[in-house]
Amino acid sequence: MLHPKVPINPTPTRTLVPLDDSSVELDVRPTAPVVCQHHAPAPPPMVRGGVHLTAGATVAAIGAGTAAVLVIGAVLVGMFLAISITAGSLAIVALVARSLLNTPRDRD
After folding, report:
1. Measured distance between the N- and C-terminal CA atoms of the chain, rounded to whole angstroms
2. 24 vs 2: CA distance, rounded Å
3. Can you list the alpha helix ranges (DSSP code H) found in 1-108?
């Protein structure tokens, strides 16, 4: 099957030990350092301003936000009201059912 070759390094150093010396040929030629030949000035960074709204746009944005908050609030209040009415109705039904099941003799 597969048997991985694990390099054995008796003295730990910061050099890499190849797995198999016979299959790897290292090319150790000195190379010249890379020098940048580009001397053009870097373009200035783009300056982006903030959002500029006119007075009418500001009033419209405030009105739209207020309307959205009111509509969402009305929907949530309606949902909570429906849940509370349902819970109250179920509690009343449970009380009536319990009283009917516990005292059947008193109705005769």
Report:
1. 89
2. 21
3. 55-102
Gap between the Cα atoms of 27 and 16, Å rounded: 15
Per-residue model confidence as pLDDT tens digits over 54-92? 899 999 999 999 999 999 999 999 999 999 999 999 999
Q: Are 5 and 19 spatial neighbours (Cβ–Cβ below 8 Å)?
A: yes
pLDDT digits (tens, 9 = 90+) for 17-46: 666 656 556 666 777 777 767 677 777 777
Identity (one letter) of the amino acid at 74? Answer: A
Copy the structure tokens of residue 64: 């739209």
Scan for tokens 């516990």, then name that residue: 102
For the question of whether the overall pTM of this predicted structure is more than 0.90, the answer is no
